[in-house]
Structure formats: C-alpha cells, structure tokens
C-alpha cells in the first residue's frame, strides 16, 4: 500500500520528463553569444511580413490581458525543469492586437542580438504559449530573456526567443539560427525531435 502511494507521484513526474532528458537543479541559463541589455521602457516588438506592420511597446504589452503560467521547460542539451512559474501575455491574446494575413503559415521570431527561431503558425498560436515578462514573481532577469521572451512549452526551449523583438509572418517555412545549424525544424521533446531532418 505504502509503496503504491509513494510510487504514483514519481511515475507522474517521470511521464513529464521527455526521453533523454534529466531534471536540472536550479534554472540554468542557455545563451548563444552575449546577453543584450534592454530596458523595459525601451523594449519594442515589431510585427511584419504577412501581417499589418506594427510596433508593440512595453506599455502596449502591459495593457493586454495578463495571465499566470506554470510550464515545464525542456532544453535540447538534455536538461528539463518542471513547473516554471511565469506571468505574461498569452499568444492568443496578443494576436487580438495584430492583423495577420490568412496566407501566413509560419512565423520567424527575431531577438535583440540577432537570434532567430522559426515556428509553424499552429505551433505559435496555442493557448499555452505566452510572451513572458515575469519569472517567479520577479521581473524576468536579463539572462533568462528579460524584459520579454516567448515561451512555447510543447517544444524544446530553443523555440522561444529570449529578448524577443520581432515576429515576421511568412507564407512558407524559413529556418532560424539553430534550425540552420543542425537542429530540427520543429523540436517536439517527447518525439525527441532534436537534430535536423531536412
Ligand atoms: N535570443 C535567444 N533566445 C534563446 C536562446 C539564445 O541563445 N538567444 N537560447 C535558447 C535555448 S537553446 C534555450 S534552452 C532557452 C534557454 O532559456 P534560459 O536561458 O532562460 O534557460 O532559450 C532559448 N532562447
Ligand atoms: Mo536549449
């Protein structure tokens, strides 16, 4: 009886850790290159491509509906962190503020510092995806992508640009930084979509 009682939570935990991943202690920082320094009041997110061009400011973002999120985080370098707590704006709420052409099927995220990462539109516009500005109740620290980053919990964490500053809507798939450098175009952790299949 006792064994059964104590086994269940660990089975559940194990089910949430994708194959080939282990649980990290703390919250590691994974950045290619330098950490840009962007003050919240100077932060801007430009929308272009197959969308009406628009610049979203920090003030604009704060005026959108705010939500809390608890999400698991999986880095393709094999560490995962469960139940990360964030606040921010749901992508589905953000989409209400912009006008995207129905011909758009992909989106490229751009970031201060030049990082890019691509997403199919159906992987971008999902209830559980969000633009995060708060981590564990504190302003998102710069090393973790502050003032604003994207979080896409159902894919490996490289699919969320830290210091995000652009969304380019596209009528075809283009590859972002890691995707051009040997990583998978989609990156679903339970399917271990780690390395390029193209
Ligand atoms: N702009 C930018 N975004 C980025 C990265 C980066 O190097 N630059 N690294 C990606 C990778 S590989 C991961 S695992 C996560 C790491 O987020 P963390 O540093 O907050 O743990 O951010 C992703 N977003
Ligand atoms: Mo990563």
Q: Helix and strand string, N-terminal first? A: HEEEHEEHEEHEEEEH
| CATH homologous superfamily grouping | Oxidoreductase, molybdopterin-binding domain
Give Rg in angstroms: 17 Å
At CATH level 3, the topology is Sulfite Oxidase, Chain A, domain 2
Spans of at least 5 consecutive residues whose pLDDT stays below 50 are 1-5
**What is the count of β-strands?**
11
Q: How many helices does DSSP assign?
A: 5
What does this structure look like?
With 198 residues, the chain is α+β, with helices and mostly antiparallel strands. The chain has a single domain, classed as Sulfite Oxidase, Chain A, domain 2 (Alpha-Beta Complex), CATH 3.90.420. Helices cover 17% and strands 31% of the residues. The chain contains five helices and eleven strands. The chain has helices at 2-16, 58-63, 91-94, 121-124, 177-180, and strands at 22-23, 44-49, 54-57, 67-74, 79-90, 106-111, 116-120, 130-135, 138-139, 149-151, 164-170. The strands form two sheets. Strands 1, 4, 5, 8, 9 and 10 form a six-stranded mixed β-sheet that branches. A five-stranded mixed β-sheet has the order 3-2-11-6-7. The chain starts with a helix and ends in an 18-residue tail after the last helix. 33% of the residues are buried. The structure holds the ligand Nc1nc2c(c(=O)[nH]1)N[C@H]1C(S)=C(S)[C@@H](COP(=O)(O)O)O[C@H]1N2 and molybdenum atom. The site of the ligand Nc1nc2c(c(=O)[nH]1)N[C@H]1C(S)=C(S)[C@@H](COP(=O)(O)O)O[C@H]1N2 has 17 residues, from loops. The site of ligand MTE has 17 residues, from loops.
